[in-house]
Amino acid sequence: TSPFAWLRTRFYYLLIRLYFDQEFSIEEFTRGAKQAFSVVSKLLSQRKLDLLDELVSAELLQVLKEKISLLPDNHRDALAADIDAIMYTTEGDVRIYYDDDGRKFVSILMRFWYLNGANLPDEVPGETKVFQIVFGDESTKEKRHLLTANYEFQREFTEGAKPDWTITRIEHPRLLE
Questions:
Q1: What confidence tens digit (pLDDT) does each residue in 34-86 have?
Q2: Which Gene Ontology terms of cellular component type are present (predicted)?
Q3: Which domain CATH number covers 64?
């Protein structure tokens, strides 16, 4: 990321600590986000969407139900990310905003890079190359793809609101479109 983006996100983290949650820690948030990403991606892959009620927003859940039903099996398999297969995580955009009713929200976009052994073609739709990593020698090689996903987490900080982060956007480029 650019130095400006890095400074901007650090400024937002300071605002979150000062005005919303004095105990907020990006390190702790990132650990929780990785765990949520792993759990949700596996449930999506297994088509267990009824178990996502408390984890994702109702609007997103409706969109996911439509998209998951249309996915080929290999794309659905590629959605699953074991927590140990997450190679890199970074925060993207951080937003603090108020709605028309005066409710306070914070949203944080997290980007994940993970290894997955799904049987994907070398080229996925959209003419984009999928990175492949081969483990082992020629006779026992195991091919894994380095895939990306973006999950946006949102929390309402209005007094009396539940203190839970909810996933409001899920993107698995070239897999879940």
A1: 999 999 999 999 999 999 998 999 999 999 999 998 999 989 999 999 999 99
A2: mitochondrial inner membrane
A3: 3.10.450
Residue 176 in any domain: the answer is no
pLDDT tens, position by position, 82-128: 999 999 999 989 999 999 999 999 999 999 999 988 887 765 544 34
Our count of domains for the chain comes to 1
- Does 150 reside within a domain? yes
The dihedrals phi and psi of 107, each to the nearest 5 degrees, come to: -130, 140
In a domain, 7, yes or no: yes
Single-letter code of the amino acid located at 102: G
E-strand stretches of the chain = 86-98, 104-116, 123-124, 128-129, 131-135, 142-156, 166-171
Whether 177 is covered by a domain: the verdict is no
